[in-house]
Amino acid sequence: MAHSQFNLFLQEATIRGRDAGSTLAAAPLYGLYTSWCHVPGTRPGPRAPSGPR
Q1: For residues 20 and 16, what is the distance between their CA atoms, to the nearest angstrom?
Q2: Which of 53, 16, 51 is nearest to 31 (CA)?
Q3: Pair 12, 40: CB distance under 8 Å
Q4: Based on the number of CB atoms within 10 Å of its own CB, is 32 exposed (0-12), middle (13-18) or buried (19 or more)?
């Protein structure tokens, strides 16, 4: 069960990779998240500070 809008996005729009090489950097992931939010007209949450983008 999703506990937040971002968790719901992760459940609906992403899949867990089988190896460590299947990662996505923070900036592209946030871009996908904001696009996902606009589909139903939802406002995305703020971008959290993170490491290198």
Answers
A1: 10
A2: 53
A3: no
A4: middle
Amino acid at 29: L
For the entire predicted model, the pTM comes to: 0.60
Place of tokens 């190896």: 19
Q: pLDDT band for position 1 (50/70/90)?
A: very low
d(CA 18, CA 27): 22
Model pLDDT for residues 12-44, shown as the tens digit of each residue: 888 877 776 778 888 998 899 888 888 777 777
Tokens of 33: 């998240």
Query: Residue 41 in contact with residue 17, Cβ under 8 Å?
Result: no
User: Smallest Cα–Cα separation from 41: which of 14, 12, 7, 5?
Assistant: 5
